[in-house]
Specification:
The chain is globular. The longest helix has 18 residues. It is mainly α. The N and C termini lie far apart (about 40 Å). The chain has 2 domains: about 35 residues; about 70 residues, no CATH class.
Length: about 110
Amino acid sequence: MRLDAWEARYWHACDTILHQMGSSLEQWLGAADAKPLHQINGILNSNLRTIYAEAVGEMRLSYGAWVIFDHCMPFNISRAYDEAQGIETPRIWTAERDLEMWKALGG
């Protein structure tokens, strides 16, 4: 089965199950609680390390038990930080960029 066909079926199944549970994809993903990047206080005036610490602190309560949480968050927050800085197209991830991110995070 092609990936695009499988993906469509997967999300349809998720939507159907959540609907039967009286929920929705938006509720399940927490979209209703999310703020647009431009509304997050101080994001344009803070550095990546500060933003990372604040975001992880908030998200750890709900998602910290996920096995991949600590692995994914630096990359996810780095991308969100880029978007808040006006970088719309994702930058290519290179070894140099990886080192730059870890240095900015203090690691």
